[in-house]
Amino acid sequence: MTTARIKLPPKLIPVFSGLARYRGARGGRGSAKTRSFALMTAVRAYMFAEAGVSGVILCGREYMNSLEDSSMEEVKQAIRSEPWLDAYFDIGDKYIRTKNKRVAYAFAGLRHNLDSIKSKARILIAWIDEAENVSETAYIKLLPTVRENGSEVWITWNPEKDGSPTDQRFVKNPPPGSKIVELNYTDNPWFPDVLEQERLSDRDRLDDQTYAWIWDGAYRENSDAQILAGKYRVAEFSFEDAFDGPYFGLDWGFSQDPTAGVRCGIYDQRLYIEHEAGKVGLENDDIASFMIARLPGIELHVVRADSARPETISHVKSKGKNGQRANLPRIEGVEKWKGSVEDGIAHLRSYKEIIIHPRCKKTLHEARTYSYKVDRMTGDVLTDIVDANNHYIDATRYALGPLIKRSGALGLMLPKRLQGKK
């Protein structure tokens, strides 16, 4: 018996393993999600045909005026990339089918061809590409037509609007039996150099929100609810002698949250976040050694941490019995007061800029997503802060604790030698 091997991004292997009604991937450019799903439709068509199952692989998009607007070319290229698949399929200008004619591809636009889709015999797989723009009406009509035993619905898309029908169905409220992942260029082992150069160019010339939408699978909209909107950017830098700092902060994790740490500094009324470190499920005994390995110089400086866990601070500060454990001898809890979170946010926003090094990916993610609550009915931005996407942000606030003023005197407290610099 001959075994065929195919290449998939590792993150997609569990998506295509085992039983599932829904399989999908969302994310930015260069992730190989479209090509991978196109390839897997051909693999499944081969498996169906070899098992004696007849039917249709339906490839749909919201808008499709002609085959040129469809996924047909992606499927053809995917089949031709594997000699054993290329030999198994009959490919014409306007059709793709197995040579034994058991399985054929159909291509349709969901907006205008939903009624004709209902007549497609035995839909085995419905793959919806560019699914961000698919309407709720289309889903309501499409899904019941994919009704064969063992039939599946596949979805691939680049997120754009928070709360789109696709987002609501498959991210916020994923149905039972779904296997859907976020897939970005960092998950693609074969990400080409030509796209890497384009990505770096976009990082330098585009605003971060647009860059994040194109490459990191973030929502495109720049909401007024985003706490740090317009205050941060991504740039490579080196920590210079002229910088104040380094300042170190730690936020303690819980069962689902990471213990998060940052190293940052200040220069010319700008905050520079240079290194981050974090892990979910980090044991107290391992915190010091973990941070020492990832935040340069942390063991030599004052480290400011969440004061809500004094027992953890004491543990991390101690070397343990007979000095058997790495420690952070100068760690201390930060002062807190009613409104200290809001005062910390005011402090962060009072910098000219917050520059985040590109290696600090989780800090950058939080800068994009840390937000105020939004009224569900009116859409109004509220003053309450969403308690999420804030672990590295909190660590940054703790690192800067002595510089943060209480309410009534909000503003930026900088070291004297920086005050007045332009």
Automatic annotation (TrEMBL):
<dbReference type="InterPro" id="IPR035412">
    <property type="entry name" value="Terminase_L_N"/>
</dbReference>
<dbReference type="Pfam" id="PF04466">
    <property type="entry name" value="Terminase_3"/>
</dbReference>
<dbReference type="InterPro" id="IPR052380">
    <property type="entry name" value="Viral_DNA_packaging_terminase"/>
</dbReference>
<protein>
    <submittedName>
        <fullName>Phage terminase large subunit</fullName>
    </submittedName>
</protein>
<dbReference type="InterPro" id="IPR035413">
    <property type="entry name" value="Terminase_L_C"/>
</dbReference>
<dbReference type="Pfam" id="PF17288">
    <property type="entry name" value="Terminase_3C"/>
</dbReference>
<feature type="domain" description="Phage terminase large subunit C-terminal">
    <location>
        <begin position="251"/>
        <end position="400"/>
    </location>
</feature>
<dbReference type="InterPro" id="IPR027417">
    <property type="entry name" value="P-loop_NTPase"/>
</dbReference>
<feature type="domain" description="Phage terminase large subunit N-terminal">
    <location>
        <begin position="24"/>
        <end position="217"/>
    </location>
</feature>
